[in-house]
Amino acid sequence: MPVHKVLVVGGGITGSVLALALAQRGADVELVEISPQWFGVGHGITLQGNALKALRSVGVLDRVLARAVPFDVLRLLRADGELITELPTPHTGGPDLPATAGALRRDLQDALCDAVYTHGVTVRLGLSVERLDQSPRHVDVAFTDGSTGRYDLVVGADGINSAMRSLIGIVEKPRPVGMSIFRVVADRPAEMDCHEVYYGGPRYKAGYSPISPGQCYAYLLDKNLDASLVGPRASLSLLRERGAGYGGTWGKIIASLTDDTAVDYRWIEAILVDGPWHRGRTLVIGDAAHACPPLIAQGAAMCMEDAVLLAELVTGEEPLEKALDHFMSRRLPRVRTVLENSLQLAEWEINPDTPGADPARIMSETLDSLTAAA
């Protein structure tokens, strides 16, 4: 096969799925993660059917679904909780998988971490890449702990603020899209059975999704507030203030939050490397190459699709250069569609009186288009 020894930089969802997929195809995989501890942190995550399909391909779907909450509809509500409409969600992973599942990010990452170790991947924590030196046949890597290594392929899966992106010579950087998001994990109200979104309130929108038998993930999309507020321990009182004006189950969730609730607040950013994501025997994938506003809930799916396809192609029969070109020809049009439509939705959220704005249509059309193979 074109590559045997592969370095994966970044141990999040993208890097974990890639390392696992490569190891299952016989590659000798080393994964480095800059954090000294390796586990899932943060809020809930929405996994569309194509994300579930990727998890099935690397053998962790059953474990994830044992804790996750599958559902097949999306409800749109007015700010007071009155139903606007209920939309069936396309089965982007095929008819034999749920259309969507809500999961706790920690549950997903724990399943991936355990599988990565089980399949013999060498995992090194608390370090990253300091320098790369390429030749036509290999890449020599110097790590931040002073060690070195030689690899057939080096993949940056280190997220939207990727250090690998600039290290391999890609100049694009993420940019704010003009909206921000508050996120919390809370107790799940008994009536919550799917993802619900509230429109017409004082902010861009509010919503929530069940993520386990007893938990839910709730969010509020707002304008960009002061950058000093950004972080994983934002003010609960600020969330309550900004989220006032939404009723129904949303109001019940916010009222139930205790003073020690972790509130994550972020400016939403986007990036698309609109050209080859590879330079010789190095490349970036996932959020390091493309990241979009979370308005279609396809971020994780696009990252996992990258990982599964890349592992398939670089362990196949094509020479590496052709395999990477083939990878780009299949991935770039698909992620561009998701990114551009997500940015259009963000624009309509920020400017809801835009003539012709139709968020439900563009969401449905995007998901319908993704039912085709990745």
TrEMBL record:
Any one GO MF annotation of this record: FAD binding
Protein's name according to its UniProt entry: FAD-binding domain-containing protein
Organism (species): Streptomyces sviceus (strain ATCC 29083 / DSM 924 / JCM 4929 / NBRC 13980 / NCIMB 11184 / NRRL 5439 / UC 5370)
Recorded superkingdom: Bacteria
FAD-binding domain location: 5-188, 276-342
Keywords of the record: Monooxygenase, Oxidoreductase
Pfam families: FAD_binding_3 (PF01494)
Source species taxonomy: Bacteria, Bacillati, Actinomycetota, Actinomycetes, Kitasatosporales
InterPro entries: FAD-bd, FAD-dep_Monooxygenase_BioMet, FAD/NAD-bd_sf
